[in-house]
## 1
Amino acid sequence: MSAGWVAATVRARALLERRIGSAATGNLAAAPTFHAATVTLAGTAYRRFLPEEPNAAQAERAVDEAVLWNLRVLAGWLPRSGAAAVGVLVADYEIRNIADRLRALAGAPVPAPYRLGSLSTAWREAAAADSVGGLRRALGASAWGDPGVDDAAELVCDLRLRAAQRLADLHEACRPLGVAACALGYARQRFLIGRRLAPKSRKRARTLLGERAAGAESWQEFAAHVPKATAGWVLEGIEEPRQLWRAEERWWSRAEQDAGALARASRFDLACPLGCALLLLVDARAVRGAVNRAARGADGGGGQQPTGDDHGAS
């Protein structure tokens, strides 16, 4: 035990007060108008980056920026190893930045990048890259590693599988989440989109899923050979790739359950801050979903099937 971990644990638990919880999230989603939903959101801890009259995209972005702000604050309280662990949990935001950088290099307009600060793994260097080759070099010099491809879609796919690896290796309690995230990411690419993975991505998948799952030619074969002990739970009852959104929801439910157990840990080490950080991400995802549902309800588009999330905390 060290004084640093004791202080970090106390402060991490205090940050949980910035969540709004399931009841308030439900009320947000059920708001009679999108304006009413944004007024409700402005009364929460997510108001920091919320414009006065936001559209749906701006409101969802404000939620993302707020949770990243909270996690940067948390990282500043943690010993160095703890801050690096929080960086693993926000991998999806860095991947989104990198995907936008690839689009910008191709001449497409992109939004401002997410502000990662100390949570960045390679973004500061990647942001300065003026070519795909330069971006790959920045990744190769970091914990991401060189994806070995120039194609934007294949490069982002590799980053998502690498994020799953990093999550699986982060803490023993995170291993099922990491392996399951790898299974979902692989399944989405191979069987839902129908894209064959690049060699390095296939190698990453084999590391966590095993040769038979990563080499499967059909959904049924893949589901039968995913490691049961670590990832079987996420695909149980999922009969076809179009149902992967249900597995995504299950992944996040398990993340909330496991994070709650970590946050209640009595020892003063990485476990509690890690759990608290993940609970903040779970709450932010639920709030984003509620904002989206409120906006779709206002447009007469409610009741659509969820599309799922990618995972870096995934």
## 2
Amino acid sequence: MAIAIEARGLVKEFDGFRAVDGVDLNIPEGSIFGILGPNGAGKTTMLRTLLGIIDPDAGTRTLLGSSKPISQSRIVGYLPEERGLYQSMRAVDTIAFMGALRGMALKDARDKGRAMLEEAGLGYAADRQIKQLSKGMAQTVQLIGTIVHDPKLIVLDEPFSGLDALNQAKLERMIRAQAEKGVTVIFSTHVIAHAERLCESIAIIAKGKISFDGLVSAARDRLRPQVHLETESLDGPWRSALPADCIAEGNWWHFTLPETGVEPLLTALVEGKAGVRSLSIERPGLHDAFVAIAGESVAAEMDQPLAEELL
């Protein structure tokens, strides 16, 4: 598999504080890759170092095959966490300006920007000033400006921050559309649900260190599935077949799926006349995997911003 970004031993310090601490990372081409971590984990510094906006103090990185990432800026789209748009500029001119910075002819960027606004359902707002747009509309304009030049790599730093559910869904659709074209999309977030819906692969970062880098499925596979069983009977010889971690709630039994699978248990339940009413096997979600990998304290830091966004 081709690699869009690779880092080895990446370090970045500020006044003796290691914001990025020995990061090793592989980001596959053509994937949607999420970087998960609480605020202050080092996500933004790591992204800027990977893109060549700032230089590392140690380690190496390559971006789209180049050891000088900044030289690839014309085929990269970057949406920083700190949004900055000229409030008096029209939406379509903002997009044209951003496209021109990446080498497009101004007229071509303006024409394409107007078409992309139409496609995003904002054609009516093309000639409005940024200050006349809602936050969600302005963020859509900035995202269009980030991708108007057809980059091979798109990097979005906390793109969902402050958006309502409808605008989050619109942004997710735009991200998927880029990935379907074969573009590599990287985004950082402190909201695990976004990564679970969108990402094929993730990296988990806390205190500048990567604790996991790989497929979402591999992260979830670190935990065994949970079994939820309802029986007619409350006792019998079949009880001895239940795992040691089984929790009983009336006629319900909750436990981790045994290494041997569910078949031997089902045999014991049937032969012991337990009377199976319901049986479900629930695969752990990304949140559970995140807690197992990063720890409960880091997960708690992630949950707090999510709760604030939902208010």
